[in-house]
């Protein structure tokens, strides 16, 4: 009885227009959640509209706390999806997006490990022509750039930036050489050292991500 009285008092503070706004937002959010679950809207469309609706709801909640819960209970409005989203306070796709980004980063890390190993093995086997080495190092630098774009600009991607800087110089050098050109012994040794050093840093970085 006390709970119902409290809800009524909350709603009594609002005029008819404000109550209509609360009801409309509740219905709009319920419809959006249902449409997303049913596959009628994309993640991007859902996230954009959900953020907009939640922002409007927050304005009303700040002025009249628990107004949506109170209206739903007082008038028996069936909006379970909307009320759940209001309690969460964020669109339902944000956590999924984070997981997807982590999965993409993990795949790129795995791909990079294979590319590092392939390049190191090629150098150990004595490959010294541009046509043999350039495709390997170019693919590696391309993958590093892809990973760099997906990572936050913070300390954790210093290893990626450093790798791009060092290996990018070799990539540029080989790009400007003819396919039949061969690297000198000292160049091959330096490239091997750079690659193995960077790969070592990468393996340490990977262990910290586990």
What does this 3D model show about the protein?
The chain is mainly alpha-helical and 210 residues long. The chain is rod-shaped. The chain is built from nine helices and no strands. The chain has two domains: 10-88, Vps28 N-terminal domain (de novo design (two linked rop proteins), Up-down Bundle), CATH 1.20.1440; 98-204, Vps28 C-terminal domain (Four Helix Bundle (Hemerythrin (Met), subunit A), Up-down Bundle), CATH 1.20.120. Residues 1-96 form the VPS28 N-terminal domain.
Summarize this structure briefly.
This protein has 210 residues and is mainly alpha-helical. The protein has nine helices and no strands.
Salient structural properties:
de novo design (two linked rop proteins); mainly alpha; disordered N terminus; 2 domains; Four Helix Bundle (Hemerythrin (Met), subunit A)
The end-to-end span amounts to 52 Å
Count of helical stretches: 9
As a percent range, the share of helical residues equals over 70%
Assign the structural class, choosing from mainly alpha, mainly beta, alpha/beta, alpha+beta, or little secondary structure: mainly alpha
Kindly give the count of domains: 2
Task: Give the overall shape.
Answer: rod-shaped
| CATH topology description of the largest domain | Four Helix Bundle (Hemerythrin (Met), subunit A)
> What is the tally of beta strands?
0
CATH class of the largest domain: Mainly Alpha
Instruction: Return the CATH architecture of the largest domain.
Output: Up-down Bundle
Residue-averaged pLDDT: 81
């Amino acid at each position: 009885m006390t709970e119902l009285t409290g809800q009524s008092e909350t709603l009594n503070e609002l005029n008819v227009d404000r109550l209509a706004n609360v009801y409309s937002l509740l219905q709009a959010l319920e419809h959006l959640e249902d449409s997303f679950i049913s596959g009628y809207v994309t993640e991007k469309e859902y996230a954009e509209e959900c953020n907009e609706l939640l922002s409007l709801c927050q304005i009303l909640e700040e002025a009249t706390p628990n107004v949506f819960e109170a209206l739903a209970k007082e008038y028996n409005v069936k909006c379970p999806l909307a009320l759940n989203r209001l309690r969460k306070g964020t669109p339902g796709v944000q956590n999924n997006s984070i997981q997807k980004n982590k999965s993409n980063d993990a795949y790129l890390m795995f791909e990079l490990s294979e590319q590092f190993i392939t390049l190191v093995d090629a150098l150990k086997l004595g490959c010294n022509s541009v046509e043999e080495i350039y495709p390997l190092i170019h693919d590696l630098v391309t993958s590093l750039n892809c990973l760099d774009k997906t990572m936050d600009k913070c300390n954790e991607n210093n290893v990626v930036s450093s790798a791009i800087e060092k290996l990018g110089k070799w990539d540029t050098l080989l790009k400007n050489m003819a396919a039949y050109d061969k690297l000198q012994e000292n160049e091959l040794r330096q490239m091997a050292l750079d690659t193995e050093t960077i790969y070592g840093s990468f393996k340490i970085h990977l262990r910290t991500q586990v």
